[in-house]
């Protein structure tokens, strides 16, 4: 799998998300400022609610812009066994149920599923619990994370 192609897919998906967030912010802003939504009394809050929504969508768009900037600057390096798993690693984990999953460890803001050929690849931020747990691990090492019902254990099958 080509890490740079995966990175391009992440950037394309983030660009789509940004367009949607910007459109949602515009619609909410128009609704908040439309003359029909001017409050007639203290209980008439449609305009105020739309303003809150517009602010939230604008913040979401800003967060996506930041993620795009991080992913554009990101340069995945080849795996170095002496350092273990680092940002940019492509990792295959197997769980206690013998189910394999392929993960691409990247900067924040890119949590999504991608396809590479016939393979499904989950993009994981190094800030996520699983991402943090993988840092520094090598092939054959155990990775463990705490989830709501208990602890999940994985084994690192391979790293690229």
Descriptive overview:
With 160 residues, this protein is of the alpha+beta class. The chain has two domains: 3-73; 90-159, Roll (Chitinase A, domain 3), CATH 3.10.50. It contains three helices and six strands; from the N terminus they run H-H-E-E-E-E-H-E-E. The protein has helices spanning 3-33, 46-73, 129-134; strands at residues 90-95, 100-106, 112-116, 119-125, 142-147, 150-159. A six-stranded mixed β-sheet has the order 3-4-2-1-6-5. Strand 1 (90-95) and strand 2 (100-106) form a beta hairpin. The longest helix is centred in the N-terminal third of the chain and has 31 residues, at 3-33. The radius of gyration is 21 Å and the shape is elongated. It starts with a helix and ends with a strand. The model has no long low-confidence stretch (mean pLDDT 90). InterPro entries: GreA/GreB_C_sf, Tscrpt_elong_fac_GreA/B_C, Tscrpt_elong_fac_GreA/B_fam. GO terms for molecular function: DNA binding; RNA polymerase binding; translation elongation factor activity. This is Transcription elongation factor GreAB.
Overall mean pLDDT:
90
Q: Numbering strands along the chain, what is their spatial order in the largest sheet?
A: 3-4-2-1-6-5
- Number of alpha- plus pi-helical segments: 3
What is the total number of structural domains?
Answer: 2
What is the terminal separation in angstroms?
9 Å
What structural class results from the helix and strand content?
A: alpha+beta
Q: Total strand count, please? A: 6
Shape: elongated
Q: Kindly estimate the percentage of residues that lie in beta strands according to DSSP.
A: 25-35%
What helical percentage do the residues reach? 40-55%
Order of helices and strands: HHEEEEHEE
* pLDDT < 50 runs, ≥5 residues: none
């Amino acid at each position: 799998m080509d890490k740079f192609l995966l990175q391009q897919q992440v950037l394309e998906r983030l660009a789509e998300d940004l367009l949607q967030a910007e459109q949602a912010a515009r619609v909410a802003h128009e609704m908040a400022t439309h003359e029909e939504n001017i409050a007639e009394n203290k209980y008439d809050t449609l305009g105020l609610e739309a303003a809150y929504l517009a602010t939230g969508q604008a913040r979401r768009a800003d967060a996506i812009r930041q993620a795009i900037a991080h992913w554009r600057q990101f340069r995945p390096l080849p795996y170095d066994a002496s350092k273990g798993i680092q940002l940019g690693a492509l990792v295959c984990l197997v769980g206690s149920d013998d189910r394999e999953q392929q993960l691409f460890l990247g900067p924040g803001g890119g949590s999504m599923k991608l396809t590479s050929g016939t393979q499904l690849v989950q993009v994981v931020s190094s800030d996520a619990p699983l991402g943090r747990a993988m840092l520094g691990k090598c092939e054959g090492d155990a990775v463990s994370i705490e989830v709501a019902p208990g602890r999940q254990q994985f084994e690192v099958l391979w790293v690229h």
